[in-house]
Amino acid sequence: MELIALKTFEKVAKEGGVLAAAKQMNTVQSNVTTRIQRLEEELGTKLFSRKGRGLELTRPGRILLDYAEQILQLERQAGVAVRLSEKGAAEINIGAMESFTATHLPQMLGALREICPKLQPRVTATTTAELLRAVLEHHIDCAFVGGPVVHKDLIILDVFEQELVLVRPRNTEPSETLILFREGCAYRKKALQWCRDYQGNRFALSELGTLEGILGCVAQGLGVTLMPRNVVELSIYRDSLTFESLPEEIAIVPTQFIQHRSTPRLNVMEGLFDSLRWLPERVVGG
């Protein structure tokens, strides 16, 4: 059995169909269908049966999925172990929320490069939900996310706490619109909680893809938002914005470091943990 066949089988099983699996794997349906057919021929059994418009695993398919997940996890772990085996390893894949990427990651990477001069970090900036999935699937080695996160397969370290503030335009009355980051953002969840519990859901909702885009719209009076205080203080729009404190249950969001339990804590990872020592316990200002 080839790894690409097992990867395709796993994706079809999880997506419930060939089309969805093909989209996830950035390939055409015929490639997915051919790989599954060859795998079934090799094993001498049907792995899927039709269910409505989708597919479901047969009993042999469910047995194979258990083994395929273990094999693919070992393959991912082997890749991580080889890449991280030396202090001078060429690459480490780090994920982070956009706010952490903008305000803290450059200093952290500078400290890490002092520890591991030959290291070439690769950074993925996206939402907490996307980062969690990427770490669990071994697409990235570790990430900085908005917590609290609880998962049995993750090592989770508290890094510091961010203070969210309510951000308004300085010189105009804002429209009754709550401007949010996209789905999966930890700050979005807090903003929706504030809107529900403290504002009676009176705000219309609007969504943008970048922190500066959100703050720029707030500065123009298009609405309000919840944002880490230090992000607002460092923004190019800071002179056009004002902010106020929020109840602690809304305001305080832990930033956490996550790593898959199966990812080896080798030399370069130990260097990453060392580089965290400069971070404050709570970030309440710039």
Automatic annotation (TrEMBL):
Domain HTH lysR-type per the UniProt entry, residue ranges: 1-58
Keyword Chloroplast on entry: no
InterPro entries for the chain: LysR_HTH_N, LysR_subst-bd, WH-like_DNA-bd_sf, WH_DNA-bd_sf
Domain of life: Bacteria
Protein name: LysR family transcriptional regulator
Family: Belongs to the LysR transcriptional regulatory family.
Pfam families, per database record: HTH_1, LysR_substrate
Example GO molecular function: transcription cis-regulatory region binding
Keywords: DNA-binding, Transcription, Transcription regulation
